[in-house]
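hiii so my PI (J.) wants the whole complex modelled not just the main chain, which honestly fair. so below is everything: two entries, each one labled with what it is. i double checked the lines twice but i was tired so who knows lol
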Amino acid sequence: MPLEHGHNRRHGRPSLPWRTFLLSLLATLAYIGAGPAPEAWVFSREAINQGELWTLISGHWVHSDSRHAIWNIAALSILGSLFEYRLKHRIFTELLLASLLLSVWIGRYMPELQAYCGLSGILNTLLVTGAIALWQRYRSMSLLLIPGLALVKNLIELFSQQAIFTHTAWPSVPQAHLVGMGIGLLLVLLRSGFSSQARSVLTAARPE
Amino acid sequence: MKHSKSLLKRINSIMAMAMCMLGVQPLMAAGLLTPTNSNLPPLEIRDHEVTVTIEDGYAITRVEQVFHNPHAQDLEARYSFPVPEHGSVAEMTLWIDGKPVSGEVLEKKQARQLYEQEKQAGRDAGLTEKDSYKTFEVMVSPVRAGKDTRVRIVYLQPAHIDTGIGRYVYPLEEGGVDEQKLAFWTANDKVTNKFNFNLQIKSAYPVDAVRVPNHGNAAIKQHSAGEWNVQIGHQANPSALSSNAKPSTADDGAGPAAGASASTTNTSHPLEGSNPPAAVNFKPQQGNAVYTLDKDLVVYWRHKPGLPGSVDLVTYKPDASERGTFMMVVTPGEDLKPISKGKDWVFVLDISGSMQGKYATLADGVQRALKKMRADDRFRIVLFNNRATDLTPAYINATPDMIKQYSDKLAAIQPNSGTNLYQGLANGIGHIDADRTSAIVLVTDGVANVGETHQRKFIELIRHKDIRLFTMIMGNSSNRPMLEAMTRESGGFAISISNSDDIVGQILKASSKVTHEALHGVKIEIDGVKTADITPHKIGSLYRGQQLVVLGHYWGDGQATVRINGKVSGQTKSYQTNFSFPGTSSENPEIERLWAYASIEDMMEEINNFGEKADIKQAIVDLGVEYGLVTDYTSMIVLRDEVFTAHNIERSNRKRLAVEQAAQQQRQARPATNRRVDTQQPMYSSPRPSFGGGAIDPWSLALFGLLAATLVITIRKEKRNAA
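here's the output for the full assembly
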């Protein structure tokens, strides 16, 4: 968000969340250029079996209809702008890893899904990693409240299955949202594991 | 390949447009009929209670009603309701002298004569007749002055799953297509004391959601993974329950009573906790009515995603040495690929008088559909009422100018006159460009009543060109047999639509069919066990998500090899499995009637195609009488026991009902049974079709906004602390 980046001034000028802008622009161009649910890009078992492995990642960046695209890209813009200051280049690596891991999960544990598209699963990853990164910086528990509420919402959706038909062209998959959050938590744990390992290596290497 | 899925959106729009014409304004509903120009006072429907059980691939619907005569003279009650989809009345029970008497099926003319004779004599009698594809008419005479008469109707119908979603319709809306009837009769569709609708789903496959669109006060409860209950109730005076709601008992021939299952301990669905345990609305609806029978009740249930493609077998063979009956349900796995080629779309739209009141929606739907088309797609629009006219002079590319032009033209049209469906279709087919893939989307809520009306001519017309026909059958009074027959002939698919349907969901299902390949020319072979009388005679095509349901007879028992053959895009495709037919089974006697009615429908198609033939008519009468089914040529009559005896009418339906009711009680007492038979050697390697998208909704976005606000507050707080 401009405020967060305004807080982080570089050479007296506010730092813009250009990485988020770039990612949002890419998702927008993918929708405008390739249209809804482009066959070559959506996650598809059939395509993956035929060697089209890029759909493991590209599937999360294309959308089934305009409503689907608008909500997801808007959410990416908001979350990315909020967290980019803390995540910096990790926003790329985390979204990339999340895309890959979520696809692997869908491929392995959701055999009924022949095809999948949309950002929302990996946005839940971003929500977790970003909120925890902010919490690590400001130590305010209220920052963890939002991922907590999102978790409750995802759980209700998963267990209630309230809407048989959603209003997007492809039905929503609440399980993917929860798995996205789980991947976020995994990435945070891995990151903190690496950090503490790096610290202990540095400490050990320091001369007495 | 590259563009194939972008077709989805366009086709979604096309189907959306087609379905936007669903708003059939009911001119008449299910109800008690009174001649419009007579001095006869109307009777009341005091109670209307519906109990539905959906299990083992079919639905049993029981409708129990109390008619009240508030007048000083005895009167005849005549209750009319729309013919349920592939449903036939199998029981009519009338309470005579306080005791239930079930009906027997006779040839239609004979049953009518007997009824009139008894009516003239002032003796209690009841009659259920079928008026072609339109309505069932239930007549009861007399309803004594100042008294109540209780009557129960039971009908059976298949309950299929499409793309993982089951759909049940309790039909109440009359489509308003029978002008003669509308002119002669006035319907009283008000229930004055109690309305209750209780539906039970028992599935061995897990059901993870049940929904009743357009009835927000429905109470939905989950009993176990595959067992659910839906209840809708309206009551004028709770104390009246005891006096009027006489519960059904086993010895009076009733099936399980409504609400019986609800008395067992249930786990409430998390988001349905706000519903009352039994949704009884004590507020009268209109005037003195607690409920009006003018809107269909639609119930959806969704199977858990990820279920395997499967073959299920339900049998009835009480005697090992006798012939048995089977119902085989094949639910294919996902192996039909998306279609990548562009298409020409010909919309053949009904603008007859019965479309009035919904035309603005139609025009709006067309406009939105056309806007979403790509420029290399082409469309034509053919309109028909008394005659067919082309709205478009040729195929049109969907440029913004053209879209505006044709949207405006469509909006200016006033629906009126009759329905010359033949000319409409002929015009549509006449424009097909042989060099491009084409499809016709036919949307009609009526009956061909102008120009050519013979079914055979329609079939010949469809055979004339290789084209798929996708038919949206709207309302309950369309000539469904004819529309389904010609759609099947084309290798397309027909979808029935109710005004109470979830249109978005129906669009989703229809669009996933037209965007994928289909298995055409489907044939089934069963080796190893002797089988015969398999119905349907001609299976046609299987589209994405559709089940194949086959009924037939078998002899003996043992291992059988079942093969399904067909063609996908010209390539032969074959699926095979092995499983065992049981030597004896007694749990599902109703499938005998389902087989008989499916066979009757096959024969009726032949009569509709080639005209009435004495031998086919007699075969229908024989099947109707043997299996106790109300058909176009048979009716069900209820007489006093002594009159049945006096006329030497065999009580075969009473015996059949007793067997069925015993089986129903047995099934009621145990959990749903798994009928899958291809577990050892699955016919399909992939799971049933499903697809999904990660969707962020406004609530999530609001949460993210809240996160931003929290961050602002946190940063300001830190700044203040730092200062």
